[in-house]
Amino acid sequence: xxxxxxxxxxxxxxxxxxxxxxxxxxxxxxxxxxxxxxxxxxxxxxxxxxxxxxxxxxxxxxxxxxxxxxxxxxxxxxxxxxxxxxxxxxxxxxxxxxxxxxxxxxxxxxxxxxxxxxxxxxxxxxxxxxxxxxxxxxxxxxxxxxxxxxxxxxxxxxxxxxxxxxxxxxxxxxxxxxxxxxxxxxxxxxxxxxxxxxxxxxxxxxxxxxxxxxxxxxxxxxxxxxxxxxxxxxxxxxxxxxxxxxxxxxxxxxxxxxxxxxxxxxxxxxxxxxxxxxxxxxxxxxxxxxxxxxxxxxxxxxxxxxxxxxxxxxxxxxxxxxxxxxxxxxxxxxxxxxxxxxxxxxxxxxxxxxxxxxxxxxxxxxxxxxxxxxxxxxxxxxxxxxxxxxxxxxxxx
Length: 397
Fold this sequence. Notes:
The structure is a single chain. By secondary structure, the chain is α/β, with parallel strands linked by helices. The protein has helices at 9-19, 64-71, 83-93, 103-109, 118-126, 146-157, 159-172, 176-195, 210-230, 234-237, 240-249, 254-258, 266-269, 272-284, 300-319, 324-327, 330-340, 355-369, and strands spanning 4-6, 24-32, 40-48, 51-56, 76-79, 100-102, 373-377, 386-390. Strands 1-4-3-2-5-6 form a six-stranded mixed beta sheet, with helices on both faces. Strands 7-8 form a two-stranded antiparallel ribbon. Helix 9 runs antiparallel to helix 14 (272-284). The mean pLDDT is 91.
């Protein structure tokens, strides 16, 4: 397989001059994230209509020329499950790649499973099988073997072929606007992850009261800053389970903190005074400055309706050639019901009540709740056993 091997800053600049004229750019990255605070970019694979390239990010001092050309111009940028790639670009130049086309999301919009792995899409759309033997490669090690390079190049060699197939299907279904909408929502989600503190993602924090949540937030902030300072994964600073246990105890007393099993590790024991200071800060906050607890389902009926109507979502998606996993989750259904029934403020806009989801799903769920539609089993052996149909008008007795 012929390809460009780019290992110097000058070669990268020259290659980017070529990229600036390309109508589309397909790319993928290989990185390691186990040993550092942020993922370390090791390799970049790029395909255009007339070139295939490997960029060794470990030998190049300045990767910004690539990220800049990716964000400029009128080309389409083709990726698969491109969140990691987008984060590299945002950190480098604080801009998005131009006209993003994620084949994983596009596949969900035409009825292929979501999220579908890259090799699954190659098999389902192109009928080919690709090698899997390098899935656990340490991309930080050099030199790379020919087999590793071939494996990495496959990740972009097939991207344009998947793009052509999926773009054609989206056009046939008149869903190109849906993809644009999804790409905008995806970009907003990644931007939020950059700008909004993600302490609520600490596992095990559900059910905590406001004071304990304030402690979770303070310890999360300390853990992030410490992990960045040491350039190590956050779990090496303080595990989630230990963080939550400290939040539950609601004490800044060093003796009681030391009694928590798991905090005796040498490097962690030295940090206990700082941990105690963060906990004390959270304990001293006025209650109104503590985080609100997460919303809980107000009635058992909401849980029952959510389970029932999530089945309706799956049935609608199969009939509309959509992947249910892309359209919505059980929580999205419960959120929509909660707004429709007044448990949540109408100012809160559920995901299923916006854009193309409102058109395909939201209105149907509303009509089911209002009793204008009914769902029944038509043929239990069919690929589409459930039928949603209008109810006859009610007549007085």
